[in-house]
Design goal:
Helix content is 62%, strand content 18%. The protein has 233 residues and is α+β, with helices and mostly antiparallel strands. It has 2 domains: 87 residues, 2-Layer Sandwich (Copper Amine Oxidase, Chain A, domain 1); 87 residues. A 7-stranded antiparallel β-sheet has the order 1-7-6-5-4-3-2. About 5% of the residues have low confidence.
Length: 233
């Protein structure tokens, strides 16, 4: 996933970098941070209380992200058209997402909620079975427990769906960011292709224009001679 061009920060890629950092790492202070480059191997975003550093290694193959002196992430560097483009490993990011969802699964009481739902179903089944064996369908106490069990099941299922929906939204948001980055990268490639095409066309026209200059000079001389020879009225 393309993030930004190293040579364009500070510069036209500031917005891409700031938006990614804010959305991915929650550092909203980067929007007001001062962006500067140190010796062309480190980019710093700093405020009075916070410091974010992107440091390029000597081989120009990796960038290390440090937020407030805490190593946070690493990015891939690719040299393309003599430019250093910074990428995020998509496979690693997907792995991080899966791990993050797994952690959330452990943190949230999913197993407990599932047990409550199962227990509620068992209670409803038993009460219903006992109710059919009695003279009436349900006694008041049985009806009370049936209604309570139903409410418990619906509440537990609603909480479960709410928590799983949060994870789903988080994953979809990351995928949306990946698609947006891919679209931005495609736009960058199209612009670069158009610039190369324009440069090539200009270069190919230059020799032809130079070759036509003698012909234009000769034509101009002939026009001048004809004007001199034209009889005056």
């Amino acid at each position: 996933m393309f993030l930004f061009n190293w040579d364009n920060v500070p510069g036209k890629d500031n917005g891409k970098l700031v938006e990614y950092l804010e959305q991915k790492y929650g550092v909203d202070w980067v929007r007001t941070a001062k962006i500067e480059k140190i010796n062309n191997n480190e980019i710093r975003l700093a405020t009075e209380k916070n410091l974010l550093s992107l440091k390029l290694n000597n081989e120009n193959t990796k960038v290390t992200l440090t937020i407030n002196k805490v190593p946070t992430d690493e990015f891939i560097v690719k040299t393309e058209n003599s430019k250093l483009n910074i990428y995020k490993d998509i496979e690693q990011e997907k792995k991080d997402v899966r791990q993050g969802v797994k952690v959330k699964d452990i943190s949230y009481p999913y197993s407990l909620l599932g047990g409550l739902v199962l227990a509620g179903l068992i209670v409803v089944f038993l009460l219903g079975y006992l109710g059919t064996k009695s003279a009436g369908i349900f006694e008041p106490r049985e009806a009370f427990f049936v209604i309570g069990a139903s409410i418990l099941i619906l509440t537990a299922a609603s909480v479960y769906l709410l928590l799983t929906l949060r994870d789903t939204i988080s994953v979809l948001k990351i995928h949306e960011e990946e698609l947006q980055s891919a679209r931005d990268a495609g736009q960058e490639r199209r612009i670069a292709s158009l610039e190369n095409t324009r440069s090539g066309a200009t270069a190919s026209l230059a020799p032809r224009v130079d070759a036509m200059e003698p012909q234009l000079a000769t034509l101009e001389a002939r026009v001048t001679a004809l004007e001199r020879e034209r009889p005056k009225v």
